[in-house]
Amino acid sequence: MAQPLSDNVRLVLGPPILGAALNWFLYGILMMQYFTYLNHANRDKTRLRAVVHFLFLLDTAQTFLVMVDIFSWYVHNFGNYEALFQFSVSPVDGPLLDSIIMVTVQLVYCWRLWVLGGWKILPAVAATLALVSCISGMFIGLIDQIEGHQPPHASPVEVLWLFASAITDILIACSMGYLRPRCLKVLKYRREIVTRTTMVMVKRVLILMLETNALTAALAIALVTVEFLVVSLHGTRLYIVFGYTIGKMYSNSFMVLLNQRTSYNTHSEVNEKLSTLNFKNRGNGRGLSCQNQRAGLRNLVPMAQQPGASGRDTLQGSPIDSIPHAGQHG
Question: Going from the N-terminus, what domains does the chain have, and what CATH number goes with each?
């Protein structure tokens, strides 16, 4: 005898399929960004390259585990409505892997706050919240995997996981918004090494940092909201859509920031040629070398190793050694 279906069956059957489709879609974008990064990663620090490879490995594992869930629910248990509320391996590819991906990206952002702003307390607070979020998410994933079925309501630890992550992203986004005018102010004091083009580039980088953190914070808050909505709509699986995509959003946002340097390098090479022609035509020393135009941005995006004396400078970063911390200027 066929099992009776609930009134909200569409909210049970639909979200896993939609979440899996979005997960694969975002994985395709991430793969494109990953190979784009590999083409320009030779100058980056080993630790940064390791972070990128680690994130891509986790996202790849998560994507294939999502398909294990889909086959378990819709193929191996076809026609078994109650099996849809069993977790399969979704606690692993959901809270467990999501929390590790999220904390990895957030710790890199905290490091950026420490470097750009010269702060210690704020990055430490943000990093602590990120670690609390990670531990909570891993705990939820392990407990749900052991229990094996969907609980009737969101647990306090689950709420802590998502709210701590959202607060971390909000702190980082607000800090980037605070640092943006101060970084530009620092560059204005150093007019001998920057140009208007560099100022525009720095502004774009900081705005991109702010926007990506605001986006991930909004997703975390949306997931918390959906978790509470499930309480009023008992027996739905709306949360899976966000659970399957939030980790990919963090990884893609992080890779966007890294790959933006490629377009900046191309733009700077054009400026180098124009500046050389300008210097030759005017002959009065007003043409600026590309190295000086890029110095400000390299110091604000310290992501790569310092090239040797014979190496060619790019916008892929160098330590902050000539521009003071933006957080130290009023």
Answer: 10-177+192-267 (1.20.1070)
